[in-house]
Design goal:
Layout: H1 6-21, H2 27-38, H3 42-48, H4 52-68, H5 73-81, H6 90-99, H7 105-127, H8 129-142, H9 152-158, H10 166-183, H11 188-204, H12 211-226, H13 235-246
Helix pairs in contact: 1-2, 1-4, 2-12, 4-5, 4-11, 4-12, 5-7, 6-7, 6-11, 7-8, 10-11, 11-12
Length: 247
């Protein structure tokens, strides 16, 4: 509509920052939003047209729903999972989050997430199933090694230790998920922190990591900071938060 699809990504950055800043009525949330907006490579990511701003927006929406609109957290989580291939890492974290919640727990949240993700993905898959599987799934296993990637494998290749494979990235991500499952609280903030750690591990040991991937990691960490516990809030802040949730 505007003649350049990057306007939609600019809108995603602004909306994502808004959701981060209003996740909770705290100065930490506001500062997290400001950090997301002013990270050094943000404008470069927009200029190059990478889609990570949309991924950060969907993660921010998921956390906003977890804290302020619990009835929507499954729907938002499902949309986030299907935004990028690597966001499949969020699936076990969503299950963990839903397992300790009332109202059906992990099963109810999982059904809503699966329905939302399927609803927006199925039309493209049914358009041409082989092409969809090839471009969305199989292509990831065929992409060539990039010696200019921002990863440990790139450094190892320059040192003559080999180029590794996608297995390194998957193993690193699984280890990070396992560690975070035991070391982070089962809260919205813990969900985002675990997603940031596991995605960082996947990118750092991947064969084609560039600054757009780390833009996502920084954005997800900002989401985690914004969603930190409200135990340090003043009584007035807590009352205002409850009033906003009621409204």
């Amino acid at each position: 509509m505007a003649g350049d699809y990057r306007y939609s990504e600019l809108a995603a950055v602004v909306l994502g920052a808004g959701l981060i800043g209003y996740t909770q009525p705290t100065i930490t949330a506001r500062l997290a939003a400001a950090l997301f907006l002013t990270q050094p490579r943000g404008m470069f990511v927009l200029e190059q047209g990478w889609t990570e701003p949309i991924a950060v927006l969907m993660v921010a929406l998921s956390l906003f729903a977890m804290i302020r609109l619990p009835r929507l957290n499954g729907w938002a989580g499902g949309l986030a999972v299907v935004t990028k291939q690597y966001l499949v890492l969020a699936v076990p974290l969503l299950v963990r989050f839903g397992a300790s919640r009332s109202g059906g727990g992990a099963g109810s949240l999982g059904l809503r997430a699966a329905f939302a993700g399927t609803l927006v993905t199925l039309p493209f898959a049914l358009w041409h199933v082989p092409s969809f599987i090839d471009s969305v799934v199989l292509l990831q296993t065929r992409e060539p090694f990039r010696s200019d990637s921002l990863s440990y494998l790139s450094w190892a290749a320059r040192e003559g230790w080999g180029t590794g494979s996608i297995v390194w990235a998957l193993v690193a991500a699984c280890i990070a998920l396992l560690v975070s499952a035991f070391r982070t609280p089962n809260t919205a903030a813990g969900f985002a922190a675990s997603l940031a750690l596991s995605s960082f591990a996947m990118f750092a040991f991947g064969s084609k990591a560039f600054c757009n991937y780390y833009f996502f990691v920084v954005g997800t960490l900002c989401c985690s900071n914004a969603a930190q516990s409200t135990s340090c809030l003043t009584p007035a802040d807590r009352r205002r938060m409850m009033d906003e949730q009621t409204a």
